[in-house]
DNA double-strand break repair protein Mre11
Amino acid sequence: MTRVIHTGDTHIGYQQYNAPERRQDFLEGFRSVVDDAIDDDVDAVVHAGDLFHDRRPSLLDLQGTVEILRTLADADIPFLAVVGNHESKRDAQWLDLFADLGLATRLGRDPQVIDNVAVYGLDFVPESRRDDLEYDFAPVPAEADHATLVSHGLFEPFAHANWDTEHVLETSSVEFDAVLLGDNHKPDTAEVADAWVTYCGSTERASASEREDRGYNLVDFDDSITISRRGLTDTREFVFVDVDLEEGEGVERVQERVRQHDLEDAVVIVTLEGDGKPVTPATIEEAAIERGALVARLNDRRDLPEEDEAVSVSFADPDAAVRERVRDLGLSDAARSIDETVRNDDLVDSNVRESVERRVRELLEDDASAFDPAPERSPDDEDVTTVADQLAGTPATAEPAGTDESASSASTPVEDGGLETAPKTGDLEETGETDETNDSDDSDDSDETENGAHAGETRESSADSTESTTDGSGDGDTTSLGDFA
């Protein structure tokens, strides 16, 4: 029997809530997995992407990761991995560096054989680059009884999916009997086209919506494949305090509920529902910190009316004022679309940058002038569509030019605007580059959304742009798996 640990989404370097302690927690989560691997003497540790939270991890994060990988190598346990969207760079990957040090193997189209299991890899590939992707892998070696694919992305039939798993399996040159995935932080398993498809989940909570215990998968390859779940017991405690306020209840009731919990060194997430009086977040958060909490956040989901009319601002014609400001700023339709997405509460803070880069590229591909300043118009022109119009759901008299009505990402355009999968050194002929713009901010101080896949809950993110050519047929429009390996 061959036993491997399937882990992923360790997000080393993520300074969640701007707390250095949380940054260390993500490194220690990875260390716990490796310690378990050594204690159990598994045959390999397979990492399904997003080892790092950022494509530019700090020196301390790199040193800590190398130290942990060395303990694994000293135990003669191979570390096999693919590149995720958070850590992907435009040239050589961090995994390539670890491979040069003899600490890791970067998986690709050629299999790595562990006992009787052939393990293949597919790095994260942006959705816009998948249509022409050919799932062409090297043949399974004769000594292998099983073939397993490791990849990173949002695959069907799981939540937030945008990658057709059945298409991958049916068009692949290799018949896989297991697919080990990363990107979705919620662990889950399903059977697709006679193959077991599984997410291992993340090793630390990258979002307040990730309430379940963190952990990883144990995968046993024998006559059949068995996938079991093991939890990590020493991760940072999160205390979730859900309060449904009745009419007339307020701060006192919330504080009473918070006092019922042991908050020492915990991340405390207080969520308010119901009616009741307005509650100032700082009052609850400061009280929790005083009682020993590492971090405290209050999420008030109630739709409360504005009571302080003394500070309200009104215009005789507010829409005209907005139109005037739009004209002065010269915002394009694409820029207004981006503004709306940046303020989208459903988008996890740590994913804004990647989503922005992806959307900017799509807009520029559709229309190279998408971000050109809007023409000067009078604020009372009927064909001016303003942010106020869009937020209010008021249809404009003229359709905005150059926009995609399914727009869901936002920010300012990035230079050269490209998104691409992560290349190996020397594998691709580079014809263009972009700045590395999807680095995550260490100043992230809240991850309190309930929707999203991860990192927390990741939607499709970007890697830097690299165009490639394929060998053989000379068909420049065909992209093979080797281009993305």
